Structures are given as structure tokens and as C-alpha cells.
Amino acid sequence: MMDVRSALDAIAADAARGDIVFSTHSEIALRVQRMLDDPDCAIDGLGKLVSAEPMLSARVLGIANSIAYNPGGRAISELRSAISRLGFATLRALAASIIVRQMREMSKAEEHRALASRLWEHTAHVAALARVIARRVTHQNPDAAFFAGIVHEVGSFYLISRASTFPGLLSSDLEPWHGEGEARVGRAVLRALDVPAHILEAMETLWSGYLAMPPASLGDTLLLADQLSPIESPLDALAGMSRKGMAVELEVLIDDETLTSILAESAEEVASLSAALKG
After folding, report:
1. Is-contact 122 234, C-beta < 8 A?
2. Which of 97, 98, 101, 58 is nearest to 79 (CA)?
3. In the predicted model, is pLDDT for residue 106 greater than 90?
4. Which of 13, 23, 53, 65 sees the fewest Cβ atoms within 10 Å?
5. pLDDT, tens digit (0-9, with 9 covering 90-100), for 122-175
6. Rounded Cα–Cα distance for residues 244 and 177 (Å)
7. pLDDT in tens, 190-211
């Protein structure tokens, strides 16, 4: 019988030591993130670097032309203009999305890659929802919420990428994963990605599972988006739990509107943004 706790301890220890290898396809995305850390970073240089990675280029143009960033419907096809429209914060989030998405290809097992694909669908929807909730409900920075949504399952992606080393792990009861197991791995991978401190703080709220009412912080934004996503994380099912089962008062008033009505009004924006991320 698989000793799940021992396997999770080993995976968490490897991550904490920094034994994390990102795919070669992620290298340009990592270089984009490093370039964005330079206070003298210029759009022209970013455009040249982004254009060297077809997946990132497509994602930048797709998001720039989504309803969320292009409500007027004026399509653009040039990377420099797309980067200008999105801003550096969103570009950083999209570079992270390439790195996270490439982690699903690191497993040699087809069934594990299929599981990671379903996890990415969940991730894309949570990121889109988090951006809307930040803007309309919690009044947090929408770009920060979008970034947090993109990286919020990065520990789970790493777990899936390592699962082949522990045969039977993903067909076992993963109840020990939720809580401290997920947090230990997640913290290590997020640090390897140089994720900002305020994003790490939001992740701690997610891992704690405690949602303040009314929701106000970036962590509340992320946790609410995770709970409200119609596409659940497949690892929740493997762990025999569902975050959507947690009580969420949908009729809470937010600036004289209900959360239900806000989400209904924003449904097209969420669908457009999540589709662009998944594409």
C-alpha cells in the first residue's frame, strides 16, 4: 500500500531544497520575468523576447484581445501594442502561466498529463474569476489577483510532475495533501519562481481555507474565486473533499449589489479571459 505521507514528505523536501527543474520551453518565460524586474525594462526589448516564444506570444495577443482587456473590440495583432495594452504586471502573470502550464508536460505518464490538463482548466477559470472579484468585490489590484490565480495550484502541478516517481500516489487517498502538504510544496515552488511576498500571503489564506465575510483581502479574493469556480481542481476529488462545499454566502451585499448579480454581469468577461488562457 502506498505510504502517501512519506511520498508527500519526500516531494516537499525535494522542492524545499530547490530541486525543481523547469522545462526548456519555460526558459524564455523565466527570462521575461527577470527582464521585468529591471527598472529600466523597455517594451521594445520585451517584445523581441516575447516573440521568441510562440506560446507566450499567442497568450499575450489572446489576452490583449479578450473582453477583459479589450471591451471596445479593437483587435490588435502587434506584440508591442499588446504589451502596452496589458501592462507589465499582466505580462508577468502570463509569463508565469507559461511556466505553470509547461509543468503539466513534465510527467511521463499520459494519465498524469490528462490530470494536469484538467487542473489547468480549473486554474484558468480561477484566475479569470479572481480578476473580476478583485475589481468588483474586494477592490484589490486586479493584476495581482490574476497573477495569484495563475500560480495558486503550482504546488499541485509539481506534485503531478513528480507522481511517476511514486507509483500509485495519484490513485491513493490524497487527504494528507490538503493543508500542510500542499502548503509546504507550494511555498517552495513559488519561491523558486520568485513570486512576490503579497502573493505568497494570499496563498497562505487559500491554504488556510478561512474566508472573511465580507471578503476584503487579496487572499479572500483568491479563496472566493477558488470556491466559486465551476471547474474544480481534480486533486480535490482525489483528496475526498471539495472547496465548493464550503459555505459561501452568495447574496452578500457588495456596494449595494449582490455577489450573484456581479458574477452574472461579469460572466462574459470571465469566459473570454479563461478561454484565452486555456487556448
Report:
1. yes
2. 58
3. no
4. 13
5. 999 999 999 999 998 899 999 999 999 999 999 999 888 888 888 888 877 778
6. 17
7. 888 878 899 999 999 999 888 8
The residue behind cell 529600466 is 40
Q: How far is it, in rounded angstroms, from Cα 69 to Cα 85?
A: 7
> By the 8 A CB rule, do 90 and 68 touch?
no
3-state SS string over 172-221?
A: CCCHHHCCHHHHHHHHHHHHHCCCCHHHHHHHHHHHHCCCCCCCCCHHHH
Q: How far is CA 120 from CA 43, 53, 103, 200, 260, in A?
A: 29, 20, 10, 20, 25
Helix (H/G/I), strand (E/B), else coil: 257:
strand
Q: In the chain, what is the greatest distance between 2 CA atoms, to the nearest angstrom?
A: 57
Structural domain range at position 95:
4-278
Name the domain count of the chain: 1
Per-residue pLDDT of 258-267, as tens digits, reads 777 888 888 8
Q: What is the pLDDT of residue 140?
A: 95
For residue 258, the cross-strand partners are 253
Residues 6+ apart with CB under 8 A from 158: 11, 15, 20, 103, 185, 189
Sign of the alpha-carbon dihedral angle for 182, 185, 188, 194? negative
Are 16 and 188 a contacting pair, CB within 8 Å?
yes
- For residue 219, what is the domain's CATH number? 1.10.3210.10
Q: Taking a C-beta distance cutoff of 8 angstroms, is the pair 120, 198 a contact?
A: no
Please tell me the pTM assigned to this model: 0.86
